Amino acid sequence: MSQNNPCLWKQLPLRSSLSPCDRYKHACCSYNANVYVLGGRENRCLRDFWKYNVVSDEWTELSCSGEAAPEELEGHSMVAHKGFLYVFGGLLDSAYTTCRCALWVFDIAKQKWVQWQGKRSLLQTQMPTNRKGHSTVVLGSAMLMYGGFIDMKGTSQDFWSLDFNTMSWSLLSGSQQDSLGPGPRHSHSAIAYQGCVYLFGGLKGLREQRDFWKWNSSSQTWSSLKYGPPKLTGHSAVTYKDSMLLFGGGETQDSPKNCLWRYSFITQTWMQLTTLPGSNPPDKIHHCCTGLGPSYKTSSTSKSFCSDSGLQPRLLGGKLKPFKNKCFPAPDNAIELETFTPDREANRSSSELETSRETLIEIDGQRIGSCLTFENKAFIKQWSCSEEEALEDKDGDITQHLPDLLLVLGGKPCTRTSPISMWQVTMID
Asked: What does the alpha-carbon distance between residue 103 and residue 18 come to, in Å, rounded to a whole number?
């Protein structure tokens, strides 16, 4: 292990009075230029749902009501895939929660919670029960879920797969799992990379762990990898380029850490990252991390998706323009403009879609020459465009044109009555 590649930490100021309160054991994920935060715990279990837009640097509270929406949640998970958010677990324990599948789906384009049952799932009897502290990752066209703490049963080692195409569950390995594998686990971390799932640490019963595991989707087997960080629980992890970033957590609930670790999939080595002078990361446990920008975009987000469940993929198109940034400048002609009409494009062939992608946008017969611009003090960027264009591109797919950003949201210790804490991490490779 070594200590190279310093990183820059910066706490982001709050510019709007409308924002979520500070919290822990919440769930978050990013999609395009938005970060979604759901539930968690402050001094009570929360039932609120928020969207943070990095373009406008603004929070928006979304609906979390109706029959299809989740209740108060903590220790749940949330992943994004093809225009939908998938939330699992976190329900308060009761007799009611033991006989239902704690899965909820949010349609990003329609901005509403939707019924998720597919044709096959309605007939399915084998489904995971409510749990907390589990992990979920997106691998291809499936969500993989490992472990978690189940009321009256304790820590689980169940390994489930949810097929996005059919919205049906399958049990990859259950309670009688072979000796080779992570075993019962909760409050751990997991990420996906090139057809594999990587799992680190967490709690096995009441004992903290520091073991590191790899699950290969081709061979359907687990293998133990080289240890690195100390025993950790309540930490978080993301995929960054050809590596895994792991932040925070602690050996106990009362001892949060502020260490940032990096595991290279190429060299198979761990590295503890240092910070630049004057850059002081926070001690956090039960927080959330999410990455934005091309270096944090996993391969699974680009794979094809089709469904008979009624959850059709969203081609959230928009104008793609140069991202002018003082720190990461791009040439004016580096990015061409393109457009999609979601409802029409969903039924077209791949060759037609390729032709459509190459079509430049024209308004009133004139090509748009100015680049998308906005001003966001938190991320030190300055763009310039009309207000109408800015609003139109606010929710567009500009992920590839954002600078690489790692955000750390919430976590213990948290401050009561204060807005959610947000830290930005800039990697220096």
From this structure: 28
Whole-number Å distance between alpha carbons of 338 and 193? 29
Mean pLDDT of 132-154: 96
3-state secondary structure of 197: strand
Integer Cα distance of 74 and 411 in angstroms? 12
What does the alpha-carbon distance between residue 234 and residue 289 come to, in Å, rounded to a whole number? Answer: 12
Tokens at 397, concatenated = 């797919």
Residue 158 has a pLDDT of 95
Q: Strands of 196-204's sheet, edge to edge?
A: 189-193, 196-204, 207-216, 221-224
Q: CA–CA distance from 423 to each of 4, 8, 42, 50, 272 (Å)?
A: 21, 10, 19, 17, 19
Beta bridge partners of 407: 290, 424
Tell me the C-alpha distance between 74 and 62, whole Å: 18
Give the Cα separation of 263 and 272 in Å (integer): 9
Beta strand 362-363 pairing with 366-367: antiparallel
- Write out pLDDT tens, residues 377-409: 444 443 334 444 444 444 455 666 788 999 999
Query: Can you tell me the distance from the alpha carbon of 147 to that of 156, in angstroms, rounded to the nearest whole number?
Result: 5
Cα distances (Å, whole numbers) of residue 314 to 296, 378, 391:
20, 29, 19
Mean pLDDT confidence for 12-35: 92
The amino acid occupying position 427 is: M
Listed in order, the ranges of the chain carrying CATH 2.120.10.80 are 7-302+403-427
Cβ neighbour number for residue 1 with a 10 Å cutoff? 11
* pTM for the full predicted model: 0.79
> What's the residue count for the chain?
429
Q: State the DSSP H helix or E strand holding residue 393, giving kind and residue range, or none if neither.
A: helix 387-393
CATH class of this structure's domain 7-302+403-427: mainly beta
Asked if 131 and 150 count as a contact pair (C-beta separation under 8 A), the reply is yes
**Residue the block writes with tokens 């204060």:** 418
What are the helix and strand counts (H, E) for the chain?
Answer: 3, 30
Secondary structure (3-state) at 290: strand
Question: What is the edge-to-edge ordering of all strands in the sheet holding 58-62?
Answer: 27-31, 34-38, 49-53, 58-62
Q: Are 158 and 133 in contact (CB under 8 A)?
A: no
What is the pLDDT at residue 15? 75
Determine the Cα–Cα distance for residues 227 and 224; give it in Å rounded to an integer.
Answer: 9
